[in-house]
Amino acid sequence: MNSSGLLFRTPNLSLSNRLPCLRLLSLHSSAIPNRTRNLVLSGRRSFGLRVRSSSLAAETMSSGPTESPKEATEVNRELYSPIEPYSSGFLKVSDLHGLYWEQSGNPSGYPVVFLHGGPGGGTAPSNRRFFDPEFYRIILFDQRGAGKSTPHACLDENTTWDLIADIEKLREHFEIPEWQVFGGSWGSTLALAYSQSHPEKVTGLVLRGIFLLRKKEIDWFYEGGASAIYPDAWEPFRDLIPADERQCFLSAYSKRLNSDDLETQYAAARAWTKWEMMTAHLLPNEENIKKGDDDYFSLAFARIENHYFTNKGFFPSDSFLLDNVDKIRHINTVIVQGRYDVCCPMMSAWDLHKAWPEADFRVIPNAGHSANEPGIAAELVAANEKLKNIVKNQG
Questions:
Q1: CB atoms < 10 A from the CB of 191, how many?
Q2: pLDDT for 13-22, tens place per residue?
Q3: I need a surface site. Which of 13, 194, 260, 306 has the fewest CB within 10 A?
Q4: Which of 32, 388, 13, 371 lies closest to 186 in space, CA to CA?
Q5: Percentage above 90 pLDDT, the chain
C-alpha cells in the first residue's frame, strides 16, 4: 500500500554533540572499512531513541540500550530540502520488463535503496527528502509495472520473487557491495522479503507502516473490517460490486481490473484507489485523494495491488515473513508505525516487534498510514540519521 501527501517542516534541530565533525563525510560503500561494515552487519545492539518533543513524540519500545534524552532530541527530524536526481535511466530486467531508476544525493555517498509502496504506487520526488543528501547515495526505482517502468500496469512476470531479483540486478548494475534498505507499507513487505533472501547485502533497515500480507490484514482492509471506521469511504468501493458478488471483494475487483473493456478496468481502478487514498491519513488529505481520479496512476496501483493480494504475496505461508525473522535479526533496524494506521493496522507492527524485539520500534501516537504525516516523516528522518551515525561513529 502506498500514500503521499503534503510536506511539512519542524523546528531545525542540530546534530548530536557526539559527532566528531559537523560536515558530513562523503562515503563510498567500497571505501568504508571492513570493520565498519562488519559492525553494521553483525551488531545486535538496539539504539532506541527517546523522543521528548511536543506532540510529534514517538512511543519507543526497544529492548536494547537507549541514548540519553539530550542525544535523542538533538537528532535531526526535519525533512531535507528538495533535490533533483544526478542520473536516471532504465534497466532491462527481463525480455518484458524495464525498470526506471534514479540516483540523487552524494554520488560517492553511502548507498540506500528506497522501496515504494503499493505494490504499484511508484516513486515520487518527495521520497528523496528522508535522506541526508550529503551522506547518502539515494537510489529510487519504480517496481515492475509501476510509475515510469514499462510495460505499464503489466501483471505478467510480476511476483515478489521477480522484484527481489530486480533489486539484486539494480545493486549489481550500480556495483554496490551492500546497502541500506528503506521501505514503507508494501515497501516494508518487500524490504523484509528481500533482506531475508539476501541478508548479507543489507546493512540496515528502516521500515514504516508494517504490512506482512497475511489473510487477516487483507480481510481487514478489503473485506469490510476498516469500513467500521470509514463507512463513508467504504460504500463507493462496496457499491461498485453487485450484491451477489460481495462475498469476496478481491475476486470481484480482480474480474473487473482484468476485464477486456478498458473503461471497466478504469472504473474499478478509480474505486479501489480512492478507497485507499481516503483512509491513508489520520486527517483527510485532498491532494492524496485526487490520485484516485488519475486513470493512469490508478490502473497500475489497483491492478498490481489486487494481483499481489489475490496471490497472497506469492509467499509459501501466511506467516512467512515472521517465520524468517531470525535471518535478519542481526541487522540494525528501525520500525516506524502510526498508531491509527487503518491501511496497515498496528497489529502487524506489534507482531513483528514481538518476533523481533531487538529492532527499534517507534509508535507515532498521532498518525495514520502516510509517510508524509508530520510525526511519521520526522521519525523516518531520525531513523536514517540513526543508521547514518552508526556508520560514521564506527568508521
A1: 26
A2: 333 333 333 3
A3: 260
A4: 371
A5: 79
